[in-house]
Write a structure and sequence with these properties.
The protein is of the alpha/beta class. The chain has helices at 10-17, 23-44, 46-50, 57-64, 68-80, 98-101, 110-123, 126-132, 144-168, 187-195, 207-218, 257-270, 292-305, 313-322, and strands spanning 84-87, 90-93, 177-181, 200-205, 226-230, 243-249, 271-282, 325-327, 331-332, 339-346. The protein has 2 domains: 10-107, Winged helix-like DNA-binding domain superfamily/Winged helix DNA-binding domain (Arc Repressor Mutant, subunit A); 126-346, Rossmann fold, CATH 3.40.50.150. It has 14 helices and 10 strands. The radius of gyration is 22 Å and the shape is globular.
């Protein structure tokens, strides 16, 4: 996926073509102003106050309990960047954003947008990271509020992906046990358990994440088949010939190559014959820039916030093959560009 400036009118097209427009300012000042407006709109409840209706600024303020002048400025900004419409002194949410910004839709991203206000502060430490090389390792430092926002955000990021991935993961009908490493909100486990009636899942998660994760998972009404276990996959014994599927999504970017190889060996031991180890991640391409905006920015973000960063498909496949597993066809998803699942089987 690529990001680019969209000119409005002939003069702007000419300015871009002739390199007269100050694109670094558009990519920074304009981009971060717009990004913050979208996130604050979610956090303040502006989109829920609008719903699918037209509302005056005064009506929105009455609902959100925010400052009238500041809220009017925010609404006007959201009109300017194309998220809202304005007509006869009333604002409305553009229909294309209903599924992303209204809580009545399971696909809504309100939790992720709210969590991004925390991520915004983390990215503010990028300058220090570039100079010192010292990452934040946020999992070790989050408080209860940040864990709650984090889990809600991860749920939003995964709700559509989990459904699509479950439709593409092939297990035998007799499969009955899976281990979901770092499965947090439980959506990947839940969707697979819906697909395979005999399947149960154990979600291995850090202790600080479990309370909020359980709350999210309980909404799926599968608590009898999706269980949580506090632990650390790098340190815990995963057993031997226990699981039909071991899945790890959006986690290996926190581990070094040596840790990921050691984990792959433990997973291979824990799998039944014919069992699958599936790694889901944003992919870092072999050459800089090949992954587009999503891959490039994700790689930088994860290197800042953890002790590692994104990995190439070749690197992740090497952990599986060196652990004695046979790679299966890579799974790409429409619902999360730049993200793939890499399954491999124990023969």
């Amino acid at each position: 996926m690529k990001y680019k400036i969209q000119p409005e009118g002939l003069l702007e097209r000419m300015a871009l073509l002739l390199n007269l427009a100050p694109t670094p300012l558009v990519d920074t000042q304009v981009a971060f102003n717009a990004a913050m407006a979208i996130m604050v709109g979610a956090d303040a409840g502006v989109y829920e106050a609008l719903g699918k209706n037209e509302r005056t600024a005064e009506q929105i303020v009455a609902e959100t309990k925010t400052d009238p002048t500041a809220t009017k400025n925010l609404l006007d900004c959201l009109v300017g960047i194309g998220y809202l419409r304005w007509n006869n002194d009333k604002y409305s949410l553009r229909p294309k954003y209903y599924k992303w910004l209204l809580k009545e839709y399971p696909s809504n991203l309100i939790g992720k947008l709210r969590f991004q206000l925390i991520e915004w502060k983390w990215m503010g430490m990028l300058d220090e990271y570039v100079r010192s090389g010292k990452p934040l390792n946020f999992h070790s430092n989050m408080n209860a509020f940040e864990w709650e926002r984090y889990q809600d955000g991860m749920r939003d990021l995964s709700v559509n992906t989990a459904k699509e991935l479950a439709g593409k993961i092939k297990l035998p009908d007799s499969a009955n046990r899976m281990l979901d490493i770092g499965g947090s909100h439980g959506l990947y486990s839940t969707e697979l358990c819906k697909k395979y009636p005999s399947l149960t899942s154990t979600i291995l998660e850090l202790p600080g994440a479990i309370d909020q994760a359980k709350t999210i998972s309980a909404k799926e009404n599968l608590s009898d088949r999706v269980k949580y276990q506090a632990g650390n996959a790098l340190m815990d014994d995963l057993g031997e010939q226990q699981f039909d599927l071991v899945m790890i999504n959006n986690v290996v970017h926190h581990f070094t190559s040596e840790e990921n190889f050691a984990l792959a060996k433990k997973v291979a031991r824990a799998l039944k014959s014919g069992g699958m180890y599936a790694i889901g991640e944003f992919i870092r391409q072999q050459k800089p820039g090949e992954g587009g905006v999503v891959g490039s920015t994700a790689g930088l973000y994860f290197s800042l916030t953890s002790s590692s960063g994104t990995w190439s498909e070749k690197e992740m496949r090497s952990w599986q093959t060196e652990a004695g597993l046979k790679p299966a066809k890579t799974i790409g998803l429409l619902t999360l560009p730049g993200w793939k699942s890499l399954p491999a089987r124990k023969m």
